[in-house]
Amino acid sequence: MTAPIGVPQNTRSRRTREALLQAARSLIEEDGFDVMTLSAVADRAGVSRRALYLHFASRSELLTTLYRHLGEAEDLATSLAKVWAQKDAVGALDEWARHIARSHPRILTISRVIERARNTDEDAAELWHLTMRNWLTSCRRLANWLDKENRLADPWTPSAAADMLWALMSWDVTERLIVDRRWSRKTLGSHYAAMLHATFVRDSSPHQ
Fold first, then answer.
1. pTM over 0.85
2. Cβ atoms within 10 A of the Cβ of 99, count?
3. Which domains occur in the chain, in start order?
4. 152: helix, strand or coil
5. Chain-centre distance of CA 201, in angstroms?
6. How far apart are CA 164 and CA 156, in angstroms?
């Protein structure tokens, strides 16, 4: 099995790359987006700037790689795969709520920093828009699946349902419930699923 494109196969190089990505993440989470310069990352990782440039030619490249690495480190793809493995759209919607509850708290801090920096930092804006596009793609898939199985409740259209599902993924929701109100991830997942079901799912009883 070959290593993914862009991932060094030399053990020492892989360790250096990992150290740089961890340094970038910790700098953003602790001090904000503005301080995350290539020099600061190199210093935090304990490597030379020359070594950094062997892995990342620019700040933008480093941040894009960090975005992908964040998903890998927190195993977000495995969590999301459980959504699409469901046998029907309603099951997928319920699992979607649990996926949000599992994954969003893990990346809340860095995501909030990127969100706040997007209006003043081009790299942050690019990462933010990429995240939003990915969210909306998944929400459209869910809404279209519900509609295809005739389980999308009135008055929702697939487009409107996708937009609302996307809006409900707001980091504000996660932060207020998990951080401010101290909900557990399990509680968030079950209550979020109940809300989505009550809002978007058509009753499948015979009289419908």
1. no
2. 21
3. 11-72 (1.10.10.60), 75-200 (1.10.357)
4. strand
5. 24
6. 10
